Amino acid sequence: MTKAAAKATSNIQSFLNKDELEDLKRRRSEEYQKYQLRMGTQMDSVILAQANSPLQYPIQGIVVPPLTKTVIPGLALQAQITELYKVSLSVKRGVLSVEDDLDEQQVDGQGQSELSISSSSLTQLNDLLSRVTYTSTIYHIKTKDLVHFSFEDHEAIFPIVIKRPSVPVLYDPGTDINSQVTITTKTFLRYEELNILINSIRQFYPQIKIIIADDSLTPEKVTGNNIEHYIMPPAQGWFAGRNLAVSQVTTKYFLWVDDDYIFNNDTQIERFVEIMEKVPELDVVGGAVDRNQFYFRLKYEEGDEEGGGCLRRFHRRNYQSVPGFKNCVFVDGVVNYFLARTDSVRRVGFDPFLKRVAHTEFFLDGLGDLLIASCKGLTVGHQKKRKLSNYRRFRFPGRNDGTNKLAHHYFKNYIKCIRY
Questions:
Q1: H or E stretch including 408?
Q2: CB distance 232 to 214 below 8 Å
Q3: How far apart are CA 366 and CA 374, in angstroms?
Q4: Taking burial as the number of CB atoms within 10 A of a residue's CB, which of 32, 111, 364, 399 is the most buried?
Q5: In degrees, to the nearest 5, what angle opens at C-alpha 228 toward C-alphas 190 and 262?
Q6: How many CA atoms lie within 13 Å of 357's alpha carbon, on the beta-carbon side?
């Protein structure tokens, strides 16, 4: 880093409250460590291959920025005494060089995709190998190359990941539950239920922010402390409302609840947060609505190129317990009562095409990207159902909705068969 860059960087702190700076730096450092763990950006020490091969190289490969010269660590030859030692390296998406090479007779192919190094001294050869660099010749934010490294009849192949560094996105967790979690919900024609939900939340969490996405036909005013009420065009649907609500969250986590839930003595958001903080790789943790701890596994078979894959849902099937939490199990989907990591859910999003038939579909889109758990003892109540004829007319889909949804999956998810 240049002196000018270092000076510019240090200036950021001049805009911060000095009385709170040390605590802010501590929280920032803790969040960054969790971010690295979650994103897998903390590389282990370079593992070198030795065993039966005389070639030593980084087994798991290395990560390099695009178009940037980078030393390949750990290259070496461990061979018996001979008159001449000669090794070759080749790549396809970059060029190879030896830094500070003064003897052109020992190195052939400087700055090219094929490089050979020879010497009568094994020590000198290994010194040259320790200075071999790789530079990609194409710009891409995430791709890879393969290095072929050979000596006599021995050959090793290891990857080079060409990747543009990502800028961390961190959420300051603050000092209490109000700065860690936002409660989000979507409402439609159920203002009586919504107000019961809000009143119950305020009994236990007087200051926590509540975000409401509302696509009712005739919107009504919703009032209260720290409530954000967003009015949508009428009947836009379940997932469009979720997208809107989550887009306005500024906290690390959000708690999703339906508008006809009711908080009780067993509704403890802090317990959700405790689990997520201790297992930072988790993206979503689900609880139970009354006694219904709904969760499932998904089995996806990719199938062939012509027909597409197949998906099947297995109700109340899990993978295994979450380490350190015997009442939590890894699953692929949970009930509509869950704490989620805001940035993780935003990356997957909710498909606004799905207006009324929409639950498993979010978890289908997140399969392989979201790490999900379901836990016992995290409960919220459900209000008694009222007869709402106008609501029911919109809530329950007709045959066309189901048919259109399947056609949508057929194209979007490249699926030819699906079974719930």
A1: helix 399-412
A2: yes
A3: 16
A4: 364
A5: 45
A6: 14
pLDDT surpassing 70 at residue 45: no
The yes-or-no verdict on residue 390 having pLDDT over 50 is yes
Q: Is residue 144 scored above 70 in pLDDT?
A: yes
DSSP 359-380: SHHHHHHTTTT--EEEEEEEEE
Buried b (16+ CB within 10 A) or exposed e, 50-81: eeeebbbbbeebbebebeeebebebbbbeeee
Residues 6 or more apart in contact with residue 275 via CB below 8 angstroms: 282, 285, 322, 325, 328, 373, 375
Contact 194, 282 (CB under 8 A): no
Q: Mention every residue, 6+ apart, whose C-beta is less than 8 A from residue 276.
A: 253, 282, 285, 339, 341
**In whole angstroms, how large is the CA radius of gyration of the chain?**
28
Structure tokens at 239: 């997932």
Q: At residue 166, what is the residue type?
A: S
* Predicted TM-score of the model (pTM): 0.85
Read off the tokens for 332.
Answer: 């692929």
What's the pLDDT tens digit per position in 215-227? 999 999 999 999 9
- Could you give the dihedral angle defined by the CA atoms of residues 205, 208, 211 and 216, in that order, rounded to the nearest 10 degrees? 30
As a whole number of angstroms, the distance between CA 419 and CA 314 comes to 9
Token pair of 240 as six digits:
């469009």
Residue 358 pLDDT > 70:
yes
Q: Which tokens go with 249? A: 């969250």
State the Cα–Cα distance between residues 188 and 325, nearest whole angstrom: 36
**Owner of token pair 């830094």:** 99
Distance CA 254, CA 106 (A): 61
Rounded Cα distance, 78 and 315, in Å: 55
